[in-house]
Amino acid sequence: FLQIRFRSREFVFSQGARIFLLVTLNYSALHILKLGIQGALLGNLVASVISGSISAYLLLKWAGLAVSKQVFRKLVTFGLPYMPSALFSYVTSNSDRLALIHFGFSANLGLVSLASKLGDMVLSLFSVPMDNLWMPHAFSVINHPDGEKRIGDLYLRYLAYIVLVALIVSLVAPLAIRLLATRSYDEAAVFVPLVAIGFIFYDLGGLQDLGIVIAKKTSVKPFIYGSVALTAIGFQLILTPRAGPLGAVLATTLTAIVQFIVISTVSRRYYKILSRPNDKLWIIVAAAVALFGGRQISSSLPSVGGNVLATIVGIMSYVGAMHYRG
Fold it and tell me: Which of 149, 191, 199, 300 has its CA 20 to 30 A from that of 116?
């Protein structure tokens, strides 16, 4: 409701309050009451009940309550396909870990998990605001005379922005891993750019979903995510036994690309987001050159100072390229 109304301050405050409540309850259960893992589970349950109850009360207060069989039928028709889609997405997102365990690479789970956390966590932090804004903004301007252009411009700007964040994460990864873990985890830095690329495609796929939502064709979602899950399993079966953890991470990235292509292809049948291919290509090339140059500096100067220099040079070259392009 807050997102639809563009009440971003209230939304951020409510999310912050929920996180504060969750942290407080978990800390109390673990460190004061000494309840162990049961305390962590109890803290999450209590936080969910409290925040859910408050949200339900406020929603009913603002929107009111009315019973309509017709509306309920539409809601079920629209929302039910999300359930199997969520199950298939779970299979896709966890296929790399399962493949590593199945093929005897359990010792490398830590490397993949660290790279995934470092890439996904930071990128999620910077992408969530856009993900929350995207659909409400699109529906607010879609019927404007220049609605398609405004949506396309926002999409392109977001692409440049999230690529910049991914570039920073990839360049900082060697230093961050050196500070957060032992030297045995240094190899995880190699996986971070692949994780970041995969995240970008997963995230952009969610934005491309706009056409499916506009047309209310959510019935195609289980087929999309089911086929993607099968693709993920196939990539893992092919690449993980041959390349170990690198193969597992690469398979996940390739799956993200396939998911983006499938969602874009289907969604464009209902609504096509205006794009500027030359600008997209410029963003990709600029990021690739910046990452390659930064990694070369980091390899030549394997020190904290060298990594900082590589990060600064990479960021400045990318930002300079974006400024030059306008």
Answer: 300
Q: Rounded to whole angstroms, how far apart are CA atoms 289 and 178?
A: 24
Helix spans in the chain (H): 8-27, 36-63, 69-79, 82-102, 109-141, 147-180, 188-208, 210-214, 221-267, 277-300, 304-325
Burial class (CB in 10 A: 0-12, 13-18, 19+), 251: buried
Q: What is the pTM of this model?
A: 0.81
State both tokens at 157. Answer: 């700007």
Please check whether residue 46 is in contact with residue 25, taking contact to mean a CB–CB distance below 8 angstroms: yes
pLDDT in tens, 86-135: 999 999 999 998 999 989 888 888 888 888 888 888 888 888 877 777 88
* The dihedral sign for the CA sequence 185, 189, 194, 196: positive
